[in-house]
Each structure stands twice: as structure tokens, then as C-alpha cells.
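R.M. (postdoc): so does anyone remember the format we settled on? I'll just put the C-alpha cells first.
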């Protein structure tokens, strides 16, 4: 029995064994989840100091993705069986990225336009804007600016959801005349 425990203990800390890879996978997963939770809590704490939290929400989501990627990369570098997988994944990812880029042009267009709206801030939450919609010229209040879509509410109370690629490329009139900072 003690030899079995010694073998399990020896294999558990050896990343070249299945048990060791599983153990380190669980350790990395727990660490990444804790760091992700910490990022979310910090962003919630910072959000309370700002009226427009779009940039903070984006930064929080971006940092969480980066934390997961770094965790996976470090895990893959630790496990010897995954070293050769990195080269294969790199070649596969380059082909897949071209295919996905072509297939998701409109989605990527909305995402890049969302970055522009968050970065340059031509409109802010609470602004009243006038824009052209399928119903004609509409005055609406900006309720949310996310990375894919902007949510507005018109004077009739109807929600208008505008893709950010349309939002960034159309001419809008800011009704209240205030200048964003």
C-alpha cells in the first residue's frame, strides 16, 4: 500500500505522466479561475467611480481572456507531451484564422467599430442623438454601447439596436450639444 502511495505521489508531481499533467491542469485551472474572479471584482470596484463603464467592461473582459491564454500557454509549456502540439496548433490556427476572418467579416467589422466607439467616444451613455433608421429620422437616447451593438431608446420607448459598424459610419446629430471628454 505504501509503495502505491509513493508511486502516486511521485507521478502526481511529474508533468510527464498523465496523473501529473492532470494535477497541474487542475492547479492551473484553479489559479486562472481565481485570477479571473479577481479581475471581475476589481473591475466592479472601479466601475462604481465612473458613469460610462463601457471601456472598463471591455478591459475587464479582455484581461480575463489574456489571463486564460497565458495560463494555457504556461500549462502547455510545462507538459512535455504538449510541446509538439504548439507547433501544430500554430499552423492550424493560421489557416483557421483566415477562414474565420472571411466568414465573420460583418461581426469583425462590428467589433472593430466597437473598439473605435469605446476608444474615441463620439457618443456616451445618456446622449440624445438623431439618426436615420428604417422608420425614418429618429431621436433616441443612448442606453448602452457594447463592442458589437449600441442600444438606444426612442421617444416612443422602443429599443433601437444598431450594429456598431453602422453606428460608426453613419452621420448622427447629438441633440443636447454637449461635448464628450
Amino acid at each position: 500500500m505504501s509503495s502505491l502511495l509513493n508511486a502516486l505521489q511521485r507521478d502526481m508531481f511529474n508533468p510527464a505522466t498523465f496523473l501529473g499533467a492532470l494535477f497541474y491542469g487542475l492547479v492551473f485551472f484553479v489559479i486562472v479561475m481565481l485570477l479571473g474572479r479577481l479581475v471581475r471584482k476589481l473591475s466592479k470596484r472601479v466601475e462604481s467611480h465612473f458613469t460610462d463603464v463601457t471601456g472598463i467592461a471591455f478591459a475587464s473582459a479582455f484581461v480575463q481572456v489574456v489571463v486564460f491564454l497565458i495560463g494555457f500557454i504556461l500549462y502547455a509549456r510545462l507538459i512535455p507531451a504538449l510541446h509538439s502540439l504548439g507547433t501544430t496548433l500554430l499552423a492550424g490556427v493560421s489557416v483557421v484564422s483566415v477562414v474565420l476572418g472571411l466568414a465573420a467579416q460583418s461581426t469583425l467589422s462590428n467589433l472593430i467599430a466597437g473598439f473605435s466607439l469605446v476608444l474615441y467616444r463620439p457618443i456616451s451613455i445618456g446622449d440624445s442623438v438623431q439618426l436615420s433608421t428604417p422608420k425614418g429620422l429618429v431621436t433616441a437616447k443612448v442606453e448602452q454601447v457594447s463592442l458589437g451593438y449600441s442600444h438606444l431608446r426612442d421617444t416612443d420607448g422602443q429599443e433601437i439596436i444598431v450594429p456598431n459598424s453602422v453606428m460608426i459610419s453613419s452621420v448622427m446629430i447629438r441633440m443636447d450639444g454637449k461635448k464628450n471628454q
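R.M.: ...and that's the designed sequence above, right after the C-alpha cells. Also worth knowing: DSSP finds six helices and five strands in the chain. The helical segments are 2-12, 18-47, 54-78, 83-103, 105-120, 164-169.
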